[in-house]
């Protein structure tokens, strides 16, 4: 099978028939073998009944229904485990992502050799209350991840199948699949300008809180990708720096006391800064030590992603 199209959805009953017909038309025009995996993330409307009807009409359409709303990351992770296509393409169910982009995205993976291609909604049909925070968020994500993408949160992306099988998406980490893919060794990440369409049915399911959660998740994924197996490098390093700073302050005050003998060390506010620095340094070092113990006791501490082998008998 050439393509798996993954569509997470929540209360999108009006748009699903049009989206399914559009995807089918594009696939037939390009002679692609395909499947569509629709994941109903606990919808309260008739979305699941629509998925069942579409699946009965077209065997290429498959569906999964969550009992409750788990979030987009859970929907994507479930579909990734089920996807059989050589190329996996994700898109939102609200018709703001165009299925006409599928052939070009597929060719960038197959012909150009990209591991992952992310869409870039260069021209957006969103209110300024959404576009301005998005620009700030994307700038922070580029700076912290080292991956230069204009639109991390674009739902329209294409992956090699082995990429989606190598990453685990949880919480709200769907925004950072490129970061997780890079950590897993898939470094050829591309970008394509895609058409963004105004929402045709319903209302957006995301509020302003997603930008706060997105920033917190960015901190989490940055830490996990860099220090998950070596937490002492972060906490121990910060602890040593803090302890050394505090020690230097206290040593300076001690020398000044001996030389000048004109004041008590505890009468100077900088003494308490030094004392706190020493205490914080010790605590950070202990946190790093405990983190190292947890990491080393994990069952996956020596699990490494081996891509190829030669002349090995197992």
Quick structural gist:
The protein is an alpha/beta fold and 314 residues long. Helices cover 49% and strands 12% of the residues.
Can you put this structure into words, describing what you see?
The structure is a single chain. With 314 residues, the protein is an alpha/beta fold. The chain folds into two domains: 3-227, Spore Coat Polysaccharide Biosynthesis Protein SpsA, Chain A (Alpha-Beta Complex); 231-297. It has ten helices and seven strands. Helix 1 (16-29) links the parallel strand 1 and strand 2 (34-40). Helix 5 (128-145) runs parallel beside helix 8 (209-227) and helix 9 (231-260) runs antiparallel to helix 10 (269-297). The radius of gyration is 25 Å and the shape is elongated.
CATH architecture annotation name of the largest domain: Alpha-Beta Complex
Approximately how much helix is present in the residues?
40-55%
CATH-defined topology of the largest domain: Spore Coat Polysaccharide Biosynthesis Protein SpsA, Chain A
User: Kindly, what is the distance between the CA atoms of the first and last residues, rounded to a whole number of angstroms?
Assistant: 29 Å
Number of helices: 10
Name the beta content range.
Answer: 5-15%
Major beta sheet, specifics?
7 strands, mixed
Number of domains: 2
Number of strands: 7
Query: Could you name the CATH class of the largest domain?
Result: Alpha Beta
Structural class: alpha/beta
- Strand sequence of the main sheet, in spatial order? 3-2-1-4-6-5-7
CATH homologous superfamily heading of the largest domain: Spore Coat Polysaccharide Biosynthesis Protein SpsA, Chain A
